[in-house]
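can u do me a favor
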């Protein structure tokens, strides 16, 4: 039998097994004895098939009731096979596939036999346990000496095998039953716990199969079982001995494996309750020494073991890590920790990464109170140190981020943190931000940025909390790092996973940061960070930004709701930012924008308690469906419908903020976006324009500020149409705002006015208003009775007003549509020109010009030049009107000429000009009254009102107004005898006033001329007592230095000579005698006109001498030759010699006073007259 072949031996043993299992009554004890002898003879055979056959016989004997026959040898054999098979499977080589398969079969049969034995009599189970312990000791003694108690050894072995409970035909159930049966023998203190918990574990395994069970769930059940078991041994070294055995078995398993992974966990749990910290440290150092850090599985296993150990041994763990760090050389050379081992050498950087995670794992598992003591130093300090002193490659960055997450999560989970401040937070944040910034924005090759954002999310939950500025910086950097990434294409699933994870991490970070400032300000800050990404050219950036905005609203709306209302104008700004995106070229972006708008509208409706019925919700849903089409016309139509639905929910302030935001973002992206923006603006203005009276200036100002940057004609046209719509309903406000724009008039503003000119009714209304603005400058300021009055009375730049009038008239007078405005325009411009001649013309730097320029206005931009360019008045240039008006010295002359020409050319509109003039006559503005008076002087119908209002001009100090008043009085006398006689007293009195006192020559000249015109229409009796005053005042100006005054005085004295009749003849005769010498001398006046007037007046007064000889000697001509004058003088002297020698002598004396005259011709004339007078006088002396 011993020498037979394996097949023969296996067959024999199989036959014996069949005999034992036959249950034949005739089978006696002898037969069983012989069978056992045969089996014992084969126990030394180590071939797998023989071993399995022997094990089957032993199991069958136990089942058949022959348990006593297998005591001793049988139980010992089974225990040896169990130990041997387990050892061989743990150390199997992959190259020996057949041998491994056979050993697995042996192990399976062994476990079946163990299950049979442990389910039989308890006494036999105890005996099997004793044999199993002996077998274990024999099997391991070959490798090294083990002096551990058998219970810990066996429990360690069973724990190692337990992670794979379904191997070996369900070995897990058999081992659990074995533990339950041997509980009193292994660890009596654990017996009660095992009695309760093992049935639950068995039940789980029985309810599942190797195809339905969950590895993680099973291990999560085993670990509490182990922890609860060890808790029963508290106060003893039982767990420490178990830890040693588990530590010894670690190298028996390959990496990775379920058994080895569970070993690391179990080791950590068993070390935690150890009483002797120094022995725990020895075990941990031994574990560190034999760990291959280049192997990810082993490295993570050791990290987990250290963390679990820190539950009860945090100081020991930290001491071990510190000792380990002391053994690392902080240099470029690697620390050869395990130099003699055959595994791959680890690098210094790898150990640093492992140490960082070890520290964080310690923080994750240690007791909260111990964590608060050690978290800042050494745990976080060591993590920062190891990272800062490393090469900071991807692996180290990931290890650092993982460490930060674990540490912060551990601190956050501590209850009753109270005022705990995480001191290293600022340092950690700075490092993480630097890591995110260093990540490439055009590619995604690692989860570094995702882990960094996760770390920031965890840090944000610890005190001290980030400030608003820090929140913004963190989000800004993180958003830039993720949104700029282009979505991965192709079939690279790993990159797609990284991409999705990065987006999720960014959303979580946003949520974490927003939670600390969950109010309208925090919402606005976050939206502001997203804004620049909502409006870029790259569609994937827009899509991600809009989705982030949507996520933000999904966080904000449920959390805040109606509790904290949005700030004034915030709702409009938020809608204005998103609304153009409903016309985006990218479908998903359009739909996400629609979702954001819906969230905003829902939030606003709930906060304002406004009506938001189902019909509006349904309409928005329809619009959202239409946004999914590819036809952009339908998309724009849907967006417009959304605007109409949303518009009703806006207050006036929100409309303003909406328009401002829409205008701000014009040209931020593309033409499509700009069209959507101006479309929304147009719809809101059309629907709400009547309600926006108080907001027109803000809206218009916003449009005007952004209009210059709009370069596309259609977009610009739509914005200008919005301005015209506002002007139609709120003309005064719009006009004031437009007139407050700076000079020079830029092309966008010019385009606005040109568009106004195309709308004739609006252009006419604007021109009326513009002229009213200019006229209001010269009228008393009225009190405003309405908001429109406030804007109408607001101060505007007259120069810009004139430029606007010029532009409008230039573009709208082609077909004479504005001819009825001719009087208003002429008079308004005349008033403006008159003001430019006054004091205000001394400061040419106007308000709106100084906004953008320094210094005076250029020559081509001034009030006079802009005014005279009006096309309506172009025909007057031929008359030289503008040349006269441009000069202050000839302004009144030009104004009068302009008035006369306007009367001639404005047929059909003559009534309007008098109305304007009469209004101006009552003005308190000096320049206004001057211009009005200048027109009155030339208007026959206005002479009477002018005469009645004359007191406002003649007696005042202003020279121009007195001159015009006097001219009006004089003109009133022309051909209006009845009116002159009616107002003769007033006329004569006011004209005489101009001849008294210190007045300017121009005022006196016009007073003399006015008197001359009045006297021409009066009779002697009408003049009354004023005759003497007129005569005396007139003679006083004969020798005046002003040629004009001398001329006017000679003419007036001639008019007096005509008026004189019987009653005044004697008086006037005396006046003629007093004036005769000046009259004769000024016949040679250097001023030709004065000389001619003097000659005419002198000859008109000759008849008052009453001498026919003198009358016959004068030819009554206005022109007289010097010879004739000499002859007339000689004749006069001869007559006087004969009839009035005393008068002649007085003439001679008076003539001698003129010898020293300042006028050469007068001195010569005086000498000639003196000579003519002297000869008769000398003759008289001789006679006497």
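np, heres the sequence
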């Amino acid at each position: 039998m011993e020498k037979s072949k394996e097949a023969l031996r296996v067959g024999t043993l199989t036959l014996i097994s069949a005999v034992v299992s036959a249950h034949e009554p005739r089978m006696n004890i002898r037969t069983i004895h012989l069978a056992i002898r045969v089996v014992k003879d084969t126990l030394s055979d180590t071939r797998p098939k023989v071993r399995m056959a022997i094990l089957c016989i032993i199991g069958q004997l136990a089942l058949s009731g022959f348990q006593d026959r297998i005591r001793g040898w049988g139980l010992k054999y089974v225990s040896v096979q169990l130990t041997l098979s387990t050892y061989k499977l743990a150390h199997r080589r992959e190259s020996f596939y057949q041998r491994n398969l056979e050993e697995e079969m042996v192990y399976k049969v062994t476990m079946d036999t163990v299950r049979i034995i442990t389910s039989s009599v308890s006494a036999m189970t105890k005996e099997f346990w004793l044999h199993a312990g002996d077998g274990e000791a024999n099997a391991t003694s070959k490798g090294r000496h083990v002096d551990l108690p058998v219970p810990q050894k066996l429990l360690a072995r069973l724990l190692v095998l337990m992670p794979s409970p379904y191997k070996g035909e369900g070995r897990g159930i058999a081992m659990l039953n074995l533990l339950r049966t041997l509980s009193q023998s292994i660890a009596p203190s654990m017996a009660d716990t095992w009695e309760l918990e093992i049935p639950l574990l068995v039940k789980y395994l029985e309810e599942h199969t190797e195809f339905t069970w969950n590895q993680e769930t099973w291990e999560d059940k085993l670990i509490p079982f182990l922890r609860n078991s060890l808790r029963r041994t508290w106060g003893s070294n039982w767990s420490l001995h178990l830890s040693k055995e588990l530590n010894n078995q670690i190298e028996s398993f390959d990496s990775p494996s379920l058994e080895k992974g569970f070993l690391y966990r179990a080791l950590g749990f068993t070390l935690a309750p150890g009483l002797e910290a120094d022995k725990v440290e020895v075990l941990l150092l031994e574990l560190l020494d034999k760990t291959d850090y280049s192997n990810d599985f082993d490295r993570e296993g050791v990290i987990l073991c250290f963390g679990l150990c820190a539950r009860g041994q945090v100081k020991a763990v930290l001491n071990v890590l510190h000792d380990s760090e002391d053994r690392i050389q902080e240099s470029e050379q690697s620390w050869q920790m395990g130099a003699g081992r055959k595994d791959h050498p680890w690098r210094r950087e790898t150990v640093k990464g492992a140490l960082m995670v070890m520290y964080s794992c310690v923080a994750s598992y240690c007791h909260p109170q111990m964590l608060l003591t050690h978290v800042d130093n050494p745990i976080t300090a060591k993590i920062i140190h190891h990272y800062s002193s490393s090469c900071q490659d991807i692996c180290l960055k990931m290890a650092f981020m993982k460490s930060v997450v674990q540490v912060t999560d551990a601190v956050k989970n501590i209850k009753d943190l109270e005022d705990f401040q995480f001191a290293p937070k600022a340092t950690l944040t700075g490092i993480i931000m630097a890591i995110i910034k260093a990540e490439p924005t055009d590619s995604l090759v690692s989860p570094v940025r995702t882990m960094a954002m996760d770390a920031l999310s965890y840090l944000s939950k610890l005190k001290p909390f980030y400030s608003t500025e820090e929140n913004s910086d963190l989000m800004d950097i993180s958003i830039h790092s993720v949104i700029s990434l282009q979505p991965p294409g192709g079939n690279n699933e790993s990159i797609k996973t990284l991409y999705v994870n990065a987006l999720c991490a960014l959303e979580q970070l946003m949520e974490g940061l927003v939670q600390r400032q969950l109010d309208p300000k925090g919402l606005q800050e976050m939206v502001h960070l997203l804004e620049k990404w909502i409006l870029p050219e790259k569609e994937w950036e827009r899509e991600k930004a809009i989705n982030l905005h949507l996520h933000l609203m999904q966080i904000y709306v449920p959390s805040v709701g109606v509790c904290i209302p949005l700030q004034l104008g915030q709702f409009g700004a938020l809608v204005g930012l998103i609304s153009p995106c409903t016309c985006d070229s990218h479908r998903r972006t359009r739909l996400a924008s629609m979702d954001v708008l819906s969230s905003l509208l829902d939030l606003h409706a709930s906060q304002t308690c406004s009506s938001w019925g189902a019909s509006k919700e349904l309409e928005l849903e329809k619009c959202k469906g239409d946004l999914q089409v590819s036809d952009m016309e339908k998309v724009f139509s849907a967006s417009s419908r959304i605007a109409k639905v949303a518009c009703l929910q806006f207050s006036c302030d929100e409309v303003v903020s909406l328009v401002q935001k829409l205008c701000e973002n014009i040209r931020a992206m593309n033409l499509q976006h700009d069209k959507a923006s101006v479309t929304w603006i147009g719809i809101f203005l059309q629907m709400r324009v009547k309600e926006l009276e108080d907001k027109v200036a803000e809206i218009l100002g916003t449009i005007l500020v952004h209009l210059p940057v709009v370069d596309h004609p259609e977009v610009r046209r739509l914005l200008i149409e919005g301005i015209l719509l506002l002007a139609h309903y709120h003309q005064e406000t719009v006009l004031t705002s437009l007139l407050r724009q700076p000079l020079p008039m830029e092309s966008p503003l010019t385009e606005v006015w040109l568009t106004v000119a195309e709308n004739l009714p609006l252009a006419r209304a604007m021109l009326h208003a513009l002229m009213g603005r200019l006229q209001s400058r010269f009228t008393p300021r009225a009190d405003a009775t309405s908001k429109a009055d406030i804007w109408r009375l607001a101060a505007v730049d007259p120069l810009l007003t004139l430029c606007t009038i010029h532009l409008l008239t230039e573009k709208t007078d082609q077909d004479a549509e504005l001819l009825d405005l001719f009087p208003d325009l002429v008079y308004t411009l005349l008033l403006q020109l008159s003001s430019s001649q006054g004091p205000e013309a001394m400061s040419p730097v106007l308000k709106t010009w100084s906004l953008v320029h320094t210094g005076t206005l250029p020559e081509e931009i001034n009030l006079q030049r802009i005014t005279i360019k009006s096309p309506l008045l172009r025909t007057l240039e031929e008359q030289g009107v503008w040349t006269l008006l441009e000069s202050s010295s000839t302004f009144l002359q030009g104004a009068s000429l302009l008035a006369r020409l306007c009367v001639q050319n404005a047929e059909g509109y003559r009534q309007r000009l008098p109305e304007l003039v009469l209004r101006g006559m009552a003005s308190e503005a000096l320049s206004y009254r001057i211009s009005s008076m200048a027109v009155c002087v030339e208007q026959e119908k206005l002479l009477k009102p002018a005469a009645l209002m004359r007191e406002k001009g003649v007696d005042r100090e202003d020279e121009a107004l007195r001159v015009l008043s006097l001219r009006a009085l004089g003109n009133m006398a022309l051909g209006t005898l009845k009116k002159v006689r009616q107002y003769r007293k007033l006329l004569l009195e006011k004209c005489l006033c101009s001849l008294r006192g210190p007045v300017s020559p121009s005022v006196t000249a016009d007073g003399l001329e006015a008197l001359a015109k009045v006297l021409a229409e009066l009779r002697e009796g009408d003049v009354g007592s004023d005759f003497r005053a007129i005569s005396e005042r007139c003679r006083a100006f004969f020798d005046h230095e002003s040629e004009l005054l001398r001329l006017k005085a000679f003419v007036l004295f001639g008019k007096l000579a005509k008026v004189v009749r019987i009653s005044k003849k004697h008086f006037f005769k005396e006046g003629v005698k007093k004036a005769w010498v000046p009259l004769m001398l000024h016949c040679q006046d250097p001023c030709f006109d004065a000389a001619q007037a003097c000659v005419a007046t002198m000859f008109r007064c000759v008849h008052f001498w009453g001498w026919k000889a003198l009358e016959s000697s004068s030819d009554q001509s206005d022109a007289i030759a010097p010879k004739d004058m000499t002859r007339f003088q000689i004749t006069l002297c001869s007559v006087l010699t004969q009839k009035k020698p005393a008068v002649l002598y007085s003439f001679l004396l008076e003539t001698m006073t003129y010898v020293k005259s300042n006028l050469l011709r007068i001195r010569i004339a005086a000498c000639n007259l003196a000579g003519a007078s002297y000869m008769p006088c000398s003759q008289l002396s001789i006679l006497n």
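The first helix runs from residue 6 to 20. hope that helps!!
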